[in-house]
Specification:
By secondary structure, this protein is an alpha+beta fold. The chain has 4 domains: 221 residues, Crotonobetainyl-coa:carnitine coa-transferase, domain 1 (Rossmann fold, 3-Layer(aba) Sandwich); 89 residues, formyl-coa transferase, domain 3, CATH 3.30.1540.10; 148 residues, Pnp Oxidase, Chain A, CATH 2.30.110; 145 residues, Nucleoside Triphosphate Pyrophosphohydrolase. Helices cover 29% and strands 26% of the residues. The chain contains 23 helices and 32 strands. Strands 23, 24, 25, 26, 27, 28, 29, 30 and 31 form a 9-stranded mixed β-sheet that branches. Strands 12, 13, 14, 15, 16, 19, 20 and 32 form an 8-stranded antiparallel β-sheet that branches. The chain has a 6-stranded parallel β-sheet with strand order 3-2-1-4-5-6. Strand 27 and strand 28 form a beta hairpin. Helix 1 packs across helix 7 and helix 7 packs across helix 8.
C-alpha cells in the first residue's frame, strides 16, 4: 500500500525492464514523484505482456502495471537536442535520477552525472549495471549486457540452488534484478541523507553481479573458513535437520527446526515424545549428523496428512508453513489482513490485482496504490517542471531587504489543515536560509498542538508582526480555538491565511522538514511575499521591544571611520559597568580591533572574563567632536564581575559618576525602557537623535 513519507522527492526514472523500475516502484509507493522518461515507443516492458482479455488493444501489460504503479510518464527523445535540453531542465529540478543503461550511454548523450550535477549539486545519480560503473571500480566485464539469469549464474546463486550439483537451478522470480533494485533503493536514501546534511549529492551505483555475491554471503564465509565450495542442497540445509520441504497428502509443508526445544515439541506432536530426548536427535549437532534418517522419519509422518491438518497441528507450535501457490495466497487470511494483494484502478476495465508494498509504517496510514501512467500522460510537465526562472532583480533585491530587516522579529506562522481549517502559531523569529533559491526556516516545538498539521502541510506563510501587534502575538501564542475569528486576515494564492497589518509576509511551499531535538525545522521556499515599511515587533528575554533599525546601522557606522563597540549588560536587575580607580563608571567597550560584529564584541568581553549573551542592537551614534562612531548592543550576563567592573542596581544608578554625557543619556533611556519592557534603537549623535525611525505595502511574486 502507499504512504506519503517521501512526498516532495522528485525522481527521474530512465530505467527499463525490472531492476530500475523495481527500485523506483518502492520510492513511488511511499510518495515520491517518479517521472518515467520514455522514448516514443515507451518502456520495453509495456509490450511484454501478459495482457488481460478485457484489454483487446493490449495497452496494459501485467509486467508494466505491477512495477510502474503510481508513476508519471514523459516522452523525450534523448538523441535529439530538444529532448536533451528538456531533460536537463527536468534534471535541474530533480532530487534523484535512476538509470540502468550500460556504462557510457549517458556520457555519449552528453547527460553524464558530472554534467547534470554541475547544474544541480544536490543531485543523487543512481546507476544499476550488470557489472558496475568504472567510476567506482572498472570491471573487465563492464561493457557486457546482463539480465537476471546472468547475474544469478555469475553471482553464485544458481551454483547453490537445485536438487544436486548436476542440476543448477535458477530461482523463479528475477532475483538478480530485484535484489539489485532493492539495494539501490537503500543506496538512494543513504545518499539523500548525506545530501541533506552537506548540500552535495553523489554518484551511486550497484552491480547486479555484486548484489548476488552479497545475497549469497554464506558461500563466501563457508569457503573462507572450511574450504568448502557451496553446492546445491535441494530443499534441505547443510547444518540443520529437520529443515526444509516435507511432503503432505495434497502438497508440501516447510519446517525449520533449529532449537532443541522445537525438536522436542515436534516429536510430541508426532506422538513420538521419546524421540525428543533420543541421543541421535536430541542436540542440533546430533540431528545434523543423522539428517538423512531424521528427515525421512518426519516425511513419513507428514505425507499421510493434508496441509490443513498439518497447519492445525503445527501452526504456532514450531517454525512451520504450508507451501502456497498463488491460489492459496489469494485466500489466505494473513494476506487479506496485511493487504498484500492490492487493487489498482484500471482505465475502462476491472481493477488490476498486484503485489502490494510489504513495508508498514506505524505512524502512517496506507492509502491505495495509483494506476500506472499511459505513455506520455504527463508530457505537460515539461513546462511546469522546467528549471525555475531567474528572480526579477527588483524582487530579488526586495527579498534580500525583507530577509535582512526582520531577522529577529516576532512572527505568526500560518497554514491550513487538510479539511481547510486555518491554523497558526507565534514564533519569536524566523531565519533566512538562502536567497537563490529563496528559502527561509521557522521552528515549531514537537509538543505544539499544531505541530502535526505544519509537519504535513504543503504550504505555509510567515507573517512578520509590526510593533503595534502585541495582541496578535499573544493571541496566536495562546491555545484559543477561535484565533482566526479574533484576527483580521486575508489569503494568498495558495489560500493560506496572511495576517493583516504585518510588516511582511512570506508565502512558502514546503522545501524540507528537519528533525532537531524537541523541535521541527520547517524550511520553506518563498513563492511570493508582501512588505511594508515600519518597525517590527521584537521579543527578548520575556519582553517585547522595538527593532526598527538593525545591523545595517552598525555596518554603516563602521564604514565611516573610527569606532568603538559597547554593551549594556544586565543581570537580574543590575547592570555590569566598568569602574576605574577614581570611581568613574562607563559602559563596557571594545576598540575597532574587536571588529564591528556582535561576535567580535562577545569575544572581547570573554577575554576580560565576562560571559555575555548579546541580543539586539541598542544604539548607533556619532561623536561630533572627533567624528568617531559608537555602536552599543543590549544583552545579559551572568557570574561575578571581573576586575575593573561592578554590578549596579538599575534603580540606583549613580548617573553623576558616568563621565560620558552620551552614555549617561543612554543609561537613563535603558532604565526607563526596562520599566515598560519596550526597547528601541537610538540613531543619531551624542547630542541628538531618534529612537527608531518608523518610516504602504508591496507584493512580490517569485
Amino acid at each position: 500500500m502507499s504512504t506519503q513519507i517521501l512526498k516532495g522527492l522528485r525522481v527521474l526514472d530512465l530505467s527499463r525492464m525490472l531492476s530500475g523500475p523495481y527500485c523506483t516502484m518502492h520510492l513511488a509507493d511511499h510518495g515520491a514523484e517518479v517521472i518515467k522518461i520514455e522514448g516514443g515507443s515507451g518502456d520495453t516492458s509495456r509490450g511484454n505482456g501478459p495482457f488481460r482479455d478485457d484489454d483487446p488493444s493490449q495497452d496494459w501489460a501485467g509486467y508494466f502495471v505491477s512495477l510502474n504503479r503510481g508513476k508519471k510518464s514523459v516522452r523525450l527523445d534523448l538523441k535529439s537536442e530538444s529532448g536533451k535540453a528538456s531533460f536537463r531542465k527536468l534534471a535541474a529540478t530533480a532530487d534523484v535520477i535512476v538509470e540502468n543503461f550500460r556504462p557510457g550511454v549517458m556520457e555519449r548523450l552528453g547527460l553524464a552525472y558530472e554534467t547534470l550535477a554541475a547544474e544541480n549539486p544536490k543531485l543523487v545519480y543512481a546507476a544499476i549495471r550488470g557489472f558496475g560503473d568504472p567510476r567506482t571500480g572498472a570491471s573487465p566485464y563492464s561493457d557486457w549486457p546482463s539480465y537476471d539469469v546472468v547475474a544469478q549464474a555469475m553471482g553464485g546463486l544458481m551454483a547453490m540452488t537445485g536438487p544436486d550439483i548436476e542440476t543448477p537451478t535458477k530461482t523463479g522470480p528475477g532475483i538478480g534484478d530485484i535484489f539489485a533494485g532493492m539495494m539501490m533503493a537503500f543506496g538512494i536514501m543513504a545518499a539523500l541523507r548525506e545530501a541533506e546534511a552537506t548540500g552535495k549529492g553523489q554518484f551511486v551505483d550497484v552491480a547486479m553481479y555484486d548484489a548476488m555475491i552479497s545475497l549469497c554471503e554464506r558461500m563466501v564465509y563457508l569457503h573462507d573458513m572450511t574450504g568448502i565450495v557451496a553446492a546445491p542442497e535441494g530443499n534441505g540445509h547443510p547444518f540443520l535437520a529437520p529443515f526444509g520441504l516435507f511432503p503432505a497428502k495434497d502438497g508440501h509443508i516447510a519446517l525449520g527446526i533449529v532449537d532443541d526445544a522445537f525438536w522436542r515439541r515436534l516429536a510430541a506432536i508426532m506422538d513420538q515424545p521419546d524421540l525428543g530426548n533420543d541421543t541421535r536427535y536430541a542436540t542440533r549437532a546430533a540431528r545434523s549428523a543423522n539428517a538423512v534418517e531424521l528427515n525421512a522419519l518426519v516425511a513419513h509422518w507428514s505425507r499421510v496428512r493434508s496441509k490443513t491438518e498439518l497447519t492445525t497441528l503445527l501452526g504456532g507450535e514450531v517454525p512451520f508453513g504450508p507451501m502456497n501457490t498463488i491460489a492459496d495466497i489469494a485466500t489466505d487470511p494473513h494476506v487479506a489482513a496485511r493487504g498484500m494483494l492490492a487493487k489498482v484502478a484500471a482505465p475502462g476495465q476491472d481493477p488490476w490485482t498486484i503485489a502490494a508494498n510489504p513495508l508498514r509504517f506505524g505512524a502512517h496510514g496506507h492509502g491505495p496504490l495509483s494506476a500506472p501512467p499511459a505513455l506520455g500522460a504527463d508530457d505537460n510537465l515539461l513546462g511546469t517542471l522546467a528549471a525555475p526562472k531567474e528572480m526579477d532583480p527588483t524582487a530579488k533585491r526586495a527579498l534580500r531587504n525583507a530577509f535582512g530587516s526582520f531577522a529577529t522579529g516576532v512572527t505568526v506562522v500560518t497554514t491550513r489543515q487538510p479539511d481547510g481549517t486555518p491554523r497558526g502559531f507565534t514564533a519569536n523569529s524566523f531565519t533566512s536560509v538562502s536567497l537563490d533559491p529563496p528559502l527561509l526556516l521557522v521552528c515549531i516545538a514537537k509538543a505544539a498542538l499544531s505541530c502535526d498539521t505544519f509537519a504535513q502541510a504543503d504550504h505555509f506563510a510567515v507573517n512578520i508582526l509590526a510593533d503595534d501587534q502585541k495582541e496578535v502575538s499573544g493571541l496566536f501564542a495562546s491555545q484559543s480555538v477561535d484565533k482566526f475569528d479574533l484576527a483580521k486576515w486575508h489569503v494568498d494564492a495558495q489560500n493560506i491565511p496572511l495576517i493583516d497589518g504585518t510588516l511582511a509576509s512570506f508565502s512558502c511551499t514546503r522545501h524540507r522538514l528537519v528533525d532537531a531535538g524537541d523541535q521541527l525545522i520547517l524550511i520553506g521556499r518563498v513563492l511570493e511575499f508582501e512588505t511594508s515599511e515600519g518597525t517590527p515587533l521584537g521579543y527578548y528575554k520575556g519582553a517585547y521591544f522595538d527593532i526598527g533599525l538593525d545591523e545595517a546601522l552598525a555596518d554603516a557606522a563602521a564604514s565611516t571611520g573610527r569606532i568603538s563597540l559597547g554593551a549594556v549588560l544586565e543581570c537580574e536587575g543590575q547592570l555590569l559597568l566598568c569602574e576605574d580607580a577614581t570611581g568613574r563608571i562607563s559602559v563596557p567597550a571594545a576598540s575597532a580591533r574587536a571588529g564591528t560584529s556582535i561576535e567580535g564584541l562577545s569575544n572581547y568581553l570573554k577575554a576580560l572574563g565576562v560571559i555575555p549573551e548579546l541580543g539586539h542592537l541598542y544604539a548607533v551614534y556619532q561623536n561630533t567632536k572627533d567624528g568617531s562612531q559608537r555602536i552599543v548592543y543590549h544583552g545579559v550576563v551572568a557570574g561575578d564581575a571581573p576586575a575593573g567592573m561592578r554590578y549596579f542596581d538599575l534603580s540606583t544608578l549613580p548617573y553623576d559618576r558616568v563621565y560620558d554625557e552620551a552614555e549617561r543619556s543612554l543609561l537613563r533611556r535603558y532604565v526607563q525602557e526596562n520599566q515598560y519592557g519596550a526597547f528601541g534603537i537610538y540613531h543619531g549623535t551624542e547630542v541628538e537623535g531618534v529612537v527608531h525611525a518608523v518610516t504602504g505595502r508591496r507584493n512580490y511574486h517569485i
